[in-house]
């Protein structure tokens, strides 16, 4: 899995050819901040050619429920790089989030969000904060596989994959290497989700071992987020799963001082999309007072990705010099520390005037030549011996006494399969549950080969799928409402399913 795009762009750069970029002006403040950003890029000598595309509110309202026209899709697929201003998702059912559609359809697996304090020019309690959050962008609970299973219970599947973990974690270490970062911290909740988050953590340890020059550590996401909010200067690069990354990257942007400042990159193997992290800010749209810095930072990330590191540095350093000079839009303006309140286009002018300057006290940007060159090797699947050892049968049952359903199910055996336990919301309620445990109408009934039903540390016996079918058929014949099943497997003899609490 090579970064084809970058190779193409390095070649075109060397030949002095401009790279064509799909540009979406977006909604609300989008067009105002995009105009400012494009002016700055042009003045800085960015080697790009703009191909405007139509996405967002007008497309939604014109009947494209995903917010994007077929022509825009074509332009994105051809250009492979998108600079996107924020869009407005109309309220109401039936409109799909365009951001999620773009990320998933284009395989933009890595969301990269650098957040640093610009103290004392932008107020923040954390003057030394300089963190990059690298969030897995496609999997986890955002796979969007949800089902209502009973009157009481809905389910959302959390999918974590080995290829997904490998590429995001490798990307984080490669990013650290390319951008001169010293440490990568993994944040997950594998003390609870031992298989899903456990896989992420395990892959992290495997890959970290291949980068001895970069420090690595792991934290449980709850304490990790708390520490990030309290002592952000202790973090360098953080890599995490989709939902956790979504939350902590907003925390990081907020505590750095303004949501108007941060940019982000959504990077895939073929396509990459760059944007500001904030939304379309309808409350200030049309007033021409929005801060364009977030989108400018998005453009800087894009130029680095395209290998135009010199232009990226020139823009970033002019932006920092402008902030340092106290020339501020309303969202960051402070009586006393700011020197001039400016609107969006005046801010852009101030940045253009400072192209070529380096900031005096803020840390200047100096990207190395290969900053954008992040290559991820192809995933190689290791096949293991997979053995069926049982089945979890989920039953919708409106009774209250687990012994009633438990005794009825325990009387059933289909070839070797026999009831081992029943859980309700993951807690064992049969045999020998506690009467205090709250019960819903959603019963997970675990059937395994007979020898494994009694022992406390069972050695699971192989079973056939035919036996599972026979069991389901018996359950159906006896009137049980089976809502779903999960096969229980061992992989190379290792249990591939979690135990129930109290099992
Ligand atoms: P928002 O980020 O648009 O606004 C939150 C607050 O921050 C507002 O008070 C706004 O005025 C201020 N703000 C945001 N950006 C600013 C800037 N550049 N300069 C100065 N002030 C700024 O969040 P929201 O109000 O929750 O969302 C508005 C719309 O944006 C919604 O339709 C939402 O779906 C959409 N949205 C889009 C994206 C995207 O396209 N990437 C991201 C988030 C939200």
**CATH uppermost class of the largest domain:** Alpha Beta
Let me know the CATH homologous superfamily of the largest domain: Isopropylmalate Dehydrogenase
Tell me the distance between the termini: 42 Å
Residue share in β-strands: 15-25%
Small molecules held by this entry: nicotinamide-adenine-dinucleotide
Describe this structure as you would to a colleague.
- The chain has 503 residues and is α/β, with parallel strands linked by helices.
- The protein folds into 3 domains: 1-106 and 256-367, Isopropylmalate Dehydrogenase (3-Layer(aba) Sandwich); 130-246, Rossmann fold (3-Layer(aba) Sandwich); 386-495, Alpha-Beta Plaits.
- The chain is built from 15 helices and 20 strands.
- It has a 10-stranded mixed sheet, sandwiched between helices. A 6-stranded antiparallel sheet has the order 17-16-18-15-19-20. Strands 6-7 form a two-stranded antiparallel ribbon.
- Strand 19 (481-491) and strand 20 form a beta hairpin.
- Helix 2 (30-44) packs parallel to helix 12 (344-353), helix 6 (162-178) packs parallel to helix 7 (196-208) and helix 10 runs antiparallel to helix 11.
- The longest helix has 17 residues, at 162-178.
- The radius of gyration is 27 Å and the shape is elongated.
- It starts with a helix and ends in an 8-residue tail after the last strand.
- Mean pLDDT is 92; it is low at 1-11.
- Bound molecules: nicotinamide-adenine-dinucleotide.
- Residues 29, 86-89, 99, 259-260, 275, 278-284, 290-291, 294, 331 line the site of nicotinamide-adenine-dinucleotide.
């Amino acid at each position: 899995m090579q970064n084809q795009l970058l190779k193409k762009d390095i070649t075109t750069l060397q030949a002095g050819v401009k790279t064509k970029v799909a540009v979406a002006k977006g909604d609300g403040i989008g067009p105002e901040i995009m105009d400012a950003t494009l002016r700055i890029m042009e003045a800085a000598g960015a080697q790009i050619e703009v191909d405007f595309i139509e996405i967002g509110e007008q497309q939604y309202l014109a009947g494209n429920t995903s917010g994007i026209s077929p022509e825009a899709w074509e332009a994105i697929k051809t250009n492979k790089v998108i600079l996107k201003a924020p869009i407005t998702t109309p309220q109401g059912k039936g409109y799909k989030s365009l951001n999620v559609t773009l990320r998933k359809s284009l395989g933009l697996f890595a969301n990269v969000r650098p957040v640093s304090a610009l103290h004392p020019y932008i107020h923040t309690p954390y003057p030394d904060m300089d963190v990059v959050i690298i969030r897995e962008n496609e999997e986890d609970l955002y796979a969007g596989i949800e089902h209502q299973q009973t009157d009481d219970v809905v389910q959302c599947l959390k999918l974590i994959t080995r290829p997904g973990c490998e590429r995001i974690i490798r990307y984080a270490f490669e990013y650290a290497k390319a951008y001169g970062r010293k440490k990568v911290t993994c944040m997950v909740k594998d003390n609870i989700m031992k298989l899903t988050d456990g896989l992420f953590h395990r892959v992290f340890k495997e890959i970290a071992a291949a980068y001895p020059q970069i420090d690595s550590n792991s934290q449980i996401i709850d304490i990790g987020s708390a520490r990030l909010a309290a002592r952000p200067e202790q973090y360098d690069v953080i890599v995490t799963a989709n939902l956790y990354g979504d939350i902590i990257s907003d925390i990081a942007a907020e505590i750095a001082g303004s949501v108007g400042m941060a940019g982000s990159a959504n990077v895939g193997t073929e396509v990459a999309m760059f944007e500001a992290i904030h939304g379309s800010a309808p409350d200030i749209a049309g007033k021409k007072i929005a801060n364009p810095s977030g989108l400018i930072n998005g453009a800087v990330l894009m130029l680095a990705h395209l290998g135009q590191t010199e232009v990226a540095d020139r823009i970033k350093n002019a932006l920092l010099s402008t902030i340092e000079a106290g020339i501020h839009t309303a969202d960051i303006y402070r009586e006393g520390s700011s020197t001039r309140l400016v609107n969006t286009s005046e801010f852009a002018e101030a940045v253009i005037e400072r192209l070529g300057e380096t900031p005096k006290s803020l840390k200047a940007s100096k990207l190395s030549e290969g900053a954008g060159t992040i290559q991820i090797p192809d995933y190689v699947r290791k096949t293991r011996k997979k053995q069926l050892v049982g089945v979890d049968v989920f039953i919708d049952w409106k009774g209250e006494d687990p012994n009633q359903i438990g005794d009825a199910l325990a009387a059933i055996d289909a070839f070797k399969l026999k009831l081992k336990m029943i859980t309700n919301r993951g807690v064992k309620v049969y045999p020998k549950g506690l009467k205090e445990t709250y019960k819903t109408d959603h019963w997970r009934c675990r059937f395994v080969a007979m020898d494994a039903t009694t022992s406390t540390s069972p050695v699971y016996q192989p079973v056939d799928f035919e036996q599972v079918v026979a069991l389901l058929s018996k359950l159906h014949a006896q009137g049980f409402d089976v809502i779903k099943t999960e096969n229980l497997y061992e992989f190379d003899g290792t249990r591939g399913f979690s135990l129930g609490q109290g099992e």
